[in-house]
UniProtKB/TrEMBL annotation:
Residues 1-33 form the signal peptide. Gene3D superfamilies: Immunoglobulins (2.60.40.10). Keywords: Signal. This is HYR domain-containing protein. InterPro entries: Ig-like_fold. It comes from the Bacteria. Residues 171-194 are annotated as: Disordered.
Length: 405
């Protein structure tokens, strides 16, 4: 079949027009990375033909956005205290990101949250959004070597539009040209990070070697005005809060001496607060009665110094009918701290309206600071003065302290 010359001339002319149109496109150099680039999406291109051709057939003009967004303003609720602890099993983080240039692309975030000695791999990030909450957290526990591994939260911002684009990919598919020379990271390379430990358990305090009294176990009498008790807690680095009948007294996790206590029944209360700020659900207590130190009423009673005696001294008298009185209110029980033994003198006592009765100071061996029960708790109460009288000659009566209760 012979093609008419006029048709051939038209086809040749059309081909020439097409080639002439494509030559400028095919000869364009690849675009260079642009420090001022704010988006890596290639603008659509058109060829000067009756029908437009969609991108990426157009001219190569892709650029590389060299400024990744930055992560900022990370905060946690609850915030860790100065010791790095929170006292709840959930925490919520809020965070923001921002472009440092005129970029208007949307910003997205990725997070890491872990409680392991080793951090997750660099490619192990999870998409997240502010606010981000983590719940049902287990308390931080001491691991091998006594190390407490904290929880760590990391967050990084990224350009949500640019990160899915390889800036070096060509915009001109015919020649494979038009891509940027580089594809710098579109993700913040310096994530924000915060760490904390979790402790949701209330601590518990303990008092060891509490006073014991076989006669009145629930209200023991102690034989010193400066008792030493062992105070302890079930967690490390506890802060101790102690008081005796509402009066604050210093204490710590150790053997603690409470010096120069006044006479009467008193209660020691101990609470503890841990590093997370948790406080004992209830204080631990112990109640005891402190005797009253005896003071010489006159010259017939001599004051003898002794480091082993209650209050550092005791009274001594050996003259017949030497008297000593002590006042009390609604008193049933009376005890003395005294020296007992074969060399001790005789002593009697009398309550208001009562008769003189014997105080037993005898014994096979001499013992100082012994508890001598004068009246027990089942005795009838009295208010007024109880009188003591030496009823021997030459043998000393040594009295250290008295308990009226």
């Amino acid at each position: 079949m012979t093609v008419p010359s006029s048709v051939r001339r038209g086809a040749t002319l059309s081909a020439a027009v097409l080639v002439g149109t494509l030559l400028p496109v095919l000869s364009l150099p690849a675009a260079q990375a642009d420090p001022g680039c704010t988006t890596e999406a290639a603008p659509p291109g058109e060829l000067p033909l009756p029908l437009p051709l969609p991108a990426p057939i157009g001219p190569g003009d892709r650029c590389d956005d060299s400024e990744a967004p930055v992560t900022s303003s990370v905060s946690a609720v609850p915030a860790a205290n100065t010791a790095g602890f929170i006292a709840r099993d959930s925490v919520t983080f809020t965070f923001t990101g921002a472009h440092t240039d005129a970029d208007a692309d949307p910003i997205a975030f990725e997070c890491q949250f872990f409680n392991t000695p080793e951090a997750p791999a660099d490619d192990d990030w999870t998409p997240c959004a502010s606010p981000q909450t983590y719940s049902d957290l287990e308390d931080t526990r001491r691991q091998l070597g006594g190390v407490e591994t904290p929880y760590t939260f990391r967050v990084r911002a990224y350009d949500a539009a640019d990160r899915g684009i390889d800036a070096t990919s060509p915009t001109n598919l015919l020649l494979g040209t038009g891509g940027a020379e580089t594809d710098l990271p579109d993700t913040d390379q310096t994530p924000e990070e915060t760490s904390f430990k979790v402790d949701t358990q209330r601590p518990v305090a303990s008092i060891f070697n509490t006073p014991f009294d076989r006669l009145t176990p629930e209200r023991p009498m102690i034989t010193t005005d400066s008792p030493t008790l062992r105070i302890n807690g079930n967690e490390p680095a506890l802060v101790f809060d102690c008081d005796i009948d509402g009066r604050a007294v210093p204490c710590r996790d150790d053997n603690v001496t409470f010096p120069d206590l006044g006479p009467g029944t008193q209660t020691l209360s101990v609470s503890v607060t841990d590093r997370a700020g948790n406080t004992s659900a209830a204080p631990v207590t112990t109640t005891f009665t402190v005797p009253e130190d005896l003071v010489a009423p006159g010259r017939r009673w001599k004051t003898r110094a002794s480091r082993q005696a209650f209050g550092g001294d005791y009274l001594e008298a050996s003259a017949y009918k030497t008297k000593l009185t002590v006042a009390g209110v609604d008193v049933r029980e009376v005890r003395l701290l005294a020296t007992t033994g074969p060399k001790s003198g005789k002593l009697k006592y009398k309550t208001p309206g009562g008769a003189w009765r014997k105080v037993r100071l005898g014994g096979k061996t001499t013992k100082r600071g012994q508890v001598v029960v004068v009246r027990n708790e089942q005795s009838a109460p009295f208010t007024g003065k109880i009188a003591f009288r030496v009823m021997s000659r030459g043998k000393p009566v040594q009295l250290d302290a008295i308990m009226l209760r």
